[in-house]
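Students often ask why we bother encoding 3D structure as a string. The short answer is that it lets us treat folding as translation between two languages. Here is a chain of 67 residues written in the first language.
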Amino acid sequence: MNLRLFVPAMSCGHCVRAIERGLRELPGIVRIEVRLDTKTVDIDFEPPAEESALRDRLAELGYPVEG
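And here it is in the second language, the structure alphabet:
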């Protein structure tokens, strides 16, 4: 499965690295692409990962998803 999330709180390279590290800790993550220019996070994942857990993790990291 793949998912694109809009994360408006991203503002720098540190944000990008924090998001990548934080999401990679979750089981089932296949690929993550964080784009600072568009403030989007593209995630390819498989079970046991699920969209709600990805959104929750981003919020925990201080980068809540908009929309």
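Translate back mentally: The mean pLDDT is 97. Keep this in mind for the problem set.
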